[in-house]
């Protein structure tokens, strides 16, 4: 399937595994023209098989999907543990049009899981919701990937972010390299998120934050509404033309503060708009990550 698929079209695919596979197929077609290299969710380019190539580097999964032979060129052949940390608190229920930040997070996490599985990485899923933590520890097998899809499909935004007392299962003594990808809008009521990310980074694993924001949040585009309600606290605020620009400036300043704080803690950061096609977001993110780790 060629071409970049819009986020709105992708949200219409109800089968999460199909949506993830479709996204990653498009993503990998883009990699044929790129140069993203490294370990753990990072691919080198694929090229067509040429007579004399070592058959050990033939990618049979690519052949099964495309009926063409591809050689995978990679600088490193290492597998790692990829843990997907998904914020499922009430604020992730915010909508811009037909779908919510939670919908986008669900498809983004599923696509990352599919990509990690293709890499041969172990995958785990952790969901933060109702003050508690759902944990599906990292494993490397196809059935585990299906379990992750099943749990993501069931995940609905509600309640507050997880309280620190429930964080214990995230911290492991594993000596295996780990990549922790945190998908969230970074909204917090009692400073729950930043100390968690700082603690995870202290374990010397790589931590990446994918910060989801909707266009109507960034642009304060709430035509027809006179009040807005916080989905976690229930608090409301009035909307008027006088407050719109002030709010936009406040949001931009807040985003920049989050970015600077995380980068100071050696945590990678990328702002992702929920209107952005997932495969484009993934390509841009991995290119950025490749530069940061080069």
Automatic annotation (TrEMBL):
<dbReference type="Pfam" id="PF01882">
    <property type="entry name" value="DUF58"/>
</dbReference>
<protein>
    <recommendedName>
        <fullName>DUF58 domain-containing protein</fullName>
    </recommendedName>
</protein>
<dbReference type="InterPro" id="IPR036465">
    <property type="entry name" value="vWFA_dom_sf"/>
</dbReference>
<dbReference type="InterPro" id="IPR002881">
    <property type="entry name" value="DUF58"/>
</dbReference>
<feature type="domain" description="DUF58">
    <location>
        <begin position="45"/>
        <end position="247"/>
    </location>
</feature>
